[in-house]
Amino acid sequence: MSASLLAIEDLSVSFHTPEGVARAVDGVSFGLDRGDSVGIVGESGCGKSVTSLSILRLIPSPPGVIESGRIRFEDRNLLELDPEDMRKIRGRDISMIFQEPMTSLNPVLPIGRQVAEPLMIHKGLTTAQALAEAAQWLDRVKIPAVRKRLGDYPHQLSGGMRQRVMIAMAMVCGPTLLIADEPTTALDVTIQAQILSLMVGLKEESGMALLLITHNLGVVAQMASRVVVMYAGQVVEEAAVADLFERPFHPYTHGLLRSMPRLGGRGGGRTERLREIPGIVPAITETLPGCRFAERCPHVFDLCRQNPPGLFAIREGQRARCFLKDYPERRRNDA
Q1: By the number of CB atoms within 10 A of the CB, which of 15, 17, 162, 169 ranks highest?
Q2: pTM of this prediction?
Q3: Would you list the DSSP string of 21-39?
Q4: What is the pLDDT of residues 175-193, one digit of tens each?
Q5: Are 181 and 97 in contact (CB under 8 A)?
Q6: β 177-181/94-97 pair status
Q7: Exposure of 273 by Cβ count < 10 A (0-12 exposed, 13-18 middle, 19+ buried)?
Q8: Alpha-carbon distance 291 to 304, whole Å?
């Protein structure tokens, strides 16, 4: 992992709540190379967003605590940097597109000023210079009538336009790594497609690396080259996109793929009925002795409930947190 642009190693993050200690991220490790794209997928509450916020050290403390691990970015451990050095990295070397632009943009500042601000902070441009460059970026993300829009406020824009402003803010300083946390969740499908196409084009043009946080496997198939699947705060599977879709190993990954709508099954071109994963995600304040997916798994056996599985190598470039690696006879028909 040392050759990666970003290497997260054994990261654990907890939140101290009245209900107890909630371990939101537990021993997460994965890497991201320069120019690469990795998608992190999983149900709500699995630790995806907490992992991404930890990279930029934006975990609110209290109640959040990064308990252990390393986050290496260009051979520097971000968890060891002082606040001033960390501020120099945010928005310049690592940028983030947040899930809901209406709550991320400042409602009392014009959008032109908000896009220009990183240029003034990180590149030392004057207000006039920064606004001129901000206008260029708003044009690149296809904001119409840019000169007029520079003075508009977020509430005057549609959801899709606000998301384009967020992309311009994130890209304006030319980051090496862009983190996109559910960048299309609040948008209708037509606007989603436009935003994703825009991000793909900007990524290819700039050569930056992309870390995409989503629950949508269809978005991952379009945007990412590798996938990290998370469940209850842990990585349960990691693989290249093609391998994950063609040869998923972990029962949870099988469940996610079966829940995706698709055409052309037994119904002769009609959409097949979606299949849900039975049961519920365990509370993150709950301490379980074995596999965290055990109570929802169709292949569970005694060992699963007694011991936590490690991440086993399944084949080259693919690993999964499942005892079925060593006990394949326990796997029942997934159909």
Answers
A1: 169
A2: 0.91
A3: EEEEEEEEEEEE-TT-EEE
A4: 999 999 988 877 788 888 8
A5: yes
A6: parallel
A7: exposed
A8: 5
300-334 burial code (b ≥16 CB/10 A, e <16): beeebeeebbebeebeeebbbbbbbbeeeeeeeee
Comparison of pLDDT for 291 and 267, the residue scoring more: 291
Cα separation, 285 vs 288, in Å, equals: 10
**List of residues 6+ apart from 58 with CB closer than 8 A:** none
Contacts 24+ apart (CB under 8 A), 67-70: 67/12, 67/13, 67/14, 68/10, 68/11, 68/12, 69/8, 69/9, 69/10, 69/11, 69/12, 69/27, 69/28, 69/29, 70/7, 70/8, 70/9, 70/10, 70/11
User: Are 244 and 320 spatial neighbours (Cβ–Cβ below 8 Å)?
Assistant: no
How confident is the model at residue 299, as a pLDDT? Answer: 95
Q: Identify the three-state secondary structure at position 116.
A: helix
Tokens of 216: 């949508």
